[in-house]
# Entry
Amino acid sequence: MPNAGNTAVPERNWFLLLAIVIGIIRGVAQLYDQCRVVLAEGNLEDWLQLAQIAIDVAIEIIRGVARFYDQYRTTARMCYWPNN
# Structure
């Protein structure tokens, strides 16, 4: 079996996916917490800060998904087409 050394590599993808999910949960929790504060105070500056946090969370989600896709693609290439 020429691919015997690469059989454990796809497991890293699950850890990366778990990290993405944890990041999304943490980002949403932070956004929810900030939203409660903004709604309680009703300050315009807080709304702007909330919008910035929402944008940051969205960017991190996109980056995490892109990292997962890139890692998955690289791993699949190594495992299934080791000579390429």
